[in-house]
């Protein structure tokens, strides 16, 4: 399972990365839109864990690029805000598979990633 994590907060991204690696995932960690686009150009991923609020760049631009460049890659959006809490993220991003709070336990996030990264 190849996973791209796009998270501006390095400590949170590393926490998620460690939990996913325990499940056997190969994880790439990006901290900005530019890093994420670069990663998507060079590798194929089953799933992207993407924070909706990036310090540098736009999460929706990353999701849009992924849907074009890697159409089979799913996006699991995480956030600590109420943006898109009405579920409208699924109308804006055709590759969205889930929307969760970033405060969820990392083992729960890892289980969701494992579930959604499985072949369809």
Summary keywords:
120 residues, Rossmann fold, 5-stranded parallel sheet, 5 helices, 22% strand
Strand and helix map with partners:
Blueprint: E1 2-6, H1 10-22, E2 26-30, H2 33-42, E3 47-51, H3 59-69, E4 74-79, H4 89-92, E5 96-101, H5 106-117
Parallel strand pairs: 1-2, 1-3, 3-4, 4-5
Helix pairs in contact: 1-5, 2-3
Report on the architecture of this protein:
The protein has 120 residues and is α/β, with parallel strands linked by helices. Helix content is 42%, strand content 22%. It has helices at residues 10-22, 33-42, 59-69, 89-92, 106-117, and strands at residues 2-6, 26-30, 47-51, 74-79, 96-101. α3 links the parallel β3 (47-51) and β4 (74-79). α1 packs across α5. It is globular. The model has no long low-confidence stretch (mean pLDDT 91).
CATH class: Alpha Beta
At CATH level 3, the topology is Rossmann fold
Q: What is the CATH-assigned architecture?
A: 3-Layer(aba) Sandwich
Compute the separation of the termini in Å.
Answer: 13 Å
Cα-based radius of gyration, to the nearest Å: 13 Å
Question: What's the quick description here?
Answer:
The protein is α/β, with parallel strands linked by helices and 120 residues long. It has five helices and five strands; from the N terminus they run βαβαβαβαβα.
């Amino acid at each position: 399972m190849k996973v791209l994590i796009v998270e501006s907060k390095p400590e949170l991204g590393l926490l998620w990365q460690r939990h996913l690696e325990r499940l056997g995932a190969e994880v790439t960690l990006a901290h900005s839109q530019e890093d994420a686009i670069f990663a998507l150009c060079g590798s194929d991923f089953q799933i992207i864990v993407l924070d909706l609020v990036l310090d540098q760049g736009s999460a929706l631009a990353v999701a849009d690029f992924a849907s074009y460049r890697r159409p089979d890659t799913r996006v699991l959006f995480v956030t600590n805000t109420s943006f898109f809490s009405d579920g409208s993220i699924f109308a804006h991003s055709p590759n969205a598979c889930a929307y969760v709070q970033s405060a969820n336990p990392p083992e729960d996030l890892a289980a969701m990633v494992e579930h959604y990264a499985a072949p369809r």
